[in-house]
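During the no-cost extension, the postdoctoral fellow (Dr. R.K.) reprocessed legacy sequence entries with the updated structure-token encoder. One reprocessed record is reproduced below for audit purposes.
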Amino acid sequence: MTDRALAIDTESLDKIGLEVDMRLTDVWSMLFERGEELDTEFLGWLLRLAYVTGYWDSLAESERGSLCNQLGYPVPERRVAPVDAALAGAASE
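Re-encoded structure tokens follow.
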């Protein structure tokens, strides 16, 4: 487990799990409709759908990190994109 995950208390993890499950009801429904007929291609498709759903939800937040704050999860720092870092270095020269 990562240091970030270890820093989250059990109650917060339960809240996060519930929130994620509620946001992925369509994914869960598709998974259980298939029953035991899961193949790796379909499972990969569901994982990509789950990922993009979470990404979409985070982009749609009215205030950055509001869901993290609500659930007691630390808001991650923004990373500097490699292109931005290269441009910043070129501008300072």
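The mean pLDDT is 77. The chain is about 70% helix and 0% strand. The remaining legacy entries will be reprocessed before the final report is submitted.
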